[in-house]
Amino acid sequence: MTTRRSSPAPREEELLDRLEAIFLKEGFRKVTVAELASRLRCSRRSFYELADSKEALFLRVFDRYLTRLREQGTRGAAAVPPQQAFEPYLMPAIDAARKLSATLMQDMTGYPPATAMWERHQRERLDGLRRLVERCVEQGLFRGVDPYLVAEVMAASLRRIREPAFLAASGLSYRDAVEELYGLLLHGLFRRDAPDAPPPRVPAPGEGAPARKPALSEKSPASPAREKPARRAASARSARQ
Description:
By secondary structure, this protein is mainly α. The protein has eleven helices and no strands. 63% of the residues lie in helices and 0% in strands. The longest helix has 27 residues. It is elongated, with a radius of gyration of 27 Å. The relative contact order is 0.09.
């Protein structure tokens, strides 16, 4: 299967945009070329001018989509200082995750060429993330973390959270899982005294907060439950007298 890589004309660009909307929402396995032609009111020949098969057409649309995400993230990160670059670098992927249906993720996972394309996309994104981490560590904005470790942990996590078994067990949608994962990254790396560090995460309503054990310095000497045994014994003797 091959895809034709010549620059598409405006009509072809519009067709690719409409195909993208369908594939992201519905996947590509079940829909036929005839159905696509009927829904988009064009001939099947229009699709075969873009790619040799339905699968190749999906790969062209998907590659175009992922390339656009990478370019958006790179442009956003380049426009601000390193410590401010993580949100514009990561947000295109977070926003994109809101468009990726469970059907698409299942179709992609079951189709090796699409999985390989996704892995390449993630690797390029994580290479850029690693470079950002390196710059922030060098400038003293991040805690002393290993940039390669951060990128590898993120890569493994992104592979895991797209698996249907994980999504079913966690009760999360893919988009929610991506947002939570990137939140862990942003809140876990910054030194709290660094400029532009994100504020501590505030629990959502109803989420509650973990109980905090009192520090030793917070123990009240006047509390009977916290008095030393010798003092409690002396108090008891005084009461009997």
